[in-house]
TrEMBL record:
GO terms for biological process: protein modification by small protein removal; proteolysis. This is PPPDE peptidase domain-containing protein 2. Residues 7-137 form the PPPDE domain. It comes from Pararge aegeria (speckled wood butterfly). SMART domains: DUF862 (SM01179). Belongs to the DeSI family.
């Protein structure tokens, strides 16, 4: 899969409210909230994400959430797949076990950010990472 251009690394961005946050937030919060974001990293033809059950992977776009609202190309990785696989296994056994999940402080977006940094040096957009502090006072 890898070549001199690397393997693509994409960020799949899902709105857990399917548009309801954008519709209802002005009346409930008094300000616009575009969505409640869940992210996953797609690399090596797999979608990697984190939740209360720990680290999971699946075919891209095949989660219970359906198709992502947005796909953002983060870059390309030159990390060999066996090294990446061991990195993911290490995260799953330690910092990103199911027991370590915290909805606001240690969630899917933090996982995606850490994986993206490892894979290609990119970050999850700050507005996604900062959402709990900004939108859920």
């Amino acid at each position: 899969m890898a070549n001199e251009e690397g393997v693509p690394v994409d960020l799949y961005i899902y709105d857990l409210t399917n548009g309801l946050a954008a519709l209802l937030s002005p009346s409930i919060l008094g300000r616009q909230v575009e969505g409640v974001w869940h992210t996953a990293v797609v690399v090596f033809e797999r979608e990697y994400f984190y939740g209360g059950g720990g680290v999971t992977s699946c075919a891209p776009g095949s989660t219970a959430l359906g198709a992502p609202q947005r796909v953002q190309r983060l870059g390309a990785t030159f990390v060999p797949f066996p090294v990446f696989r061991e990195y993911i296994r290490g995260l799953a056994a330690s910092a990103y076990s199911g027991a370590a999940y915290r909805l606001l402080e240690h969630n899917c977006n933090h996982f995606s950010d850490e994986v993206a940094q490892f894979a290609c040096g990119a970050r999850v957009p700050e507005h996604i990472l900062a959402q709990p502090e900004r939108d859920l006072p």
